[in-house]
Amino acid sequence: MANKSKNSKGSHGGSTIALNRKAKHEYFIEDRYEAGIELEGWEVKSLRAGRMAINESYINIARNEAFLQGCTITPLPTASTHIQPNPTRHRKLLLHRYQLDRLIGQVERRGYTLVPTAVYWKQGRVKVEIGLARGKQMHDKREADRDRDWNRDKARILRAH
Q: Is residue 142 part of a domain?
């Protein structure tokens, strides 16, 4: 079996489990961080099957710890019978102390928001990409739509000639 180069794996370095496309539309993502996530056994099995949604999720900071809230991991029907899986429980994010202090400072002093932008596998572990984001106003969203449409039209015109 041939070895794959690091560049061939994509932007996250592994297979993507879930993307938050809505975050790009709703926010200006100014900085990105990578965090681990604390999971239970049945959650890992469900993630291997790709059963996660992060569209409506956000990151909350409480007691100097970061938690992923609002994401849904749908349990597999073959999950263990002796536990009751909670698909929407709050999951702790694993960050270094200096990263957490920096994020807390940005959120409290500057009014930024923390949103998960992607969940992916990296070297057998689940990672969450956190975006440090500022909210978009309605006119910003319209401008982004206009730019995207123009880029599509421009590419279409260039392909035709």
A: no
Can you give the residue range of the structural domain that contains 54? 12-136
- The answer to whether position 72 is within a domain reads yes
Domain count, the chain: 1
Q: Could you read off the pLDDT of 18-50 as tens digits, one per residue?
A: 888 887 778 888 889 999 999 888 888 888 888
Distances (CA, A) of 139 to 24, 43, 133, 135: 15, 39, 17, 12
Q: Tokens 């401008």 belong to which residue?
A: 143
Residue 161 inside a domain? The answer is no
